[in-house]
Amino acid sequence: MSDEVAIDGKNLTLEEVRRVANERASVYVASDAKEKMNASRRVVEKMMKRGDTVYGVNTGFDFWQTFASNKKRSTSCN
């Protein structure tokens, strides 16, 4: 069994999570996963540059969006 756990976006097991959490196994991001992450980032950056709405990037996730709206309303009433 390897002392390293690869994050590749496909094959993470509960046993590997346990090894990282309990045995402090090393973790690395596999090179093909890095390539996919970079490609995804480029897509998001293009969308942002066009001014598109990108859920969770330039919008809030529901809880945080609601929290921010409530906070904004409460401070504007003062």
Q: Strands, helices and their partners?
A:
Elements lengths: L3 E4 L6 H10 L2 E4 L1 H20 L11 H15 L2
Parallel strand pairs: 1-2
Characterization of the model:
The chain is mainly alpha-helical and 78 residues long. The protein has one domain: Fumarase/aspartase (N-terminal domain) (Fumarase C, Chain B, domain 1). It is built from 3 helices and 2 strands, in the order βαβαα. The protein has helices at residues 14-23, 31-50, 62-76, and strands at 4-7, 26-29. Strands 1-2 form a two-stranded parallel sheet. The model has no long low-confidence stretch (mean pLDDT 84).
Q: Which properties best describe this structure?
A:
Fumarase C, Chain B, domain 1; mainly alpha; 3 helices; 78 residues
Overall average residue pLDDT: 84
Largest sheet composition = 2 strands, parallel
Span of the ends, CA to CA: 61 Å
Structural class: mainly alpha
Mind telling me the CATH class? Mainly Alpha
CATH topology: Fumarase C, Chain B, domain 1
Query: What is the number of domains?
Result: 1
How is the largest sheet built, in terms of strand order? 1-2
CATH homologous superfamily identity:
Fumarase/aspartase (N-terminal domain)
Element order: H for helix, E for strand:
EHEHH
How large is the count of helical segments?
A: 3
Give the gist of this structure.
The chain has 78 residues and is mainly alpha-helical. Helix content is 58%, strand content 10%.
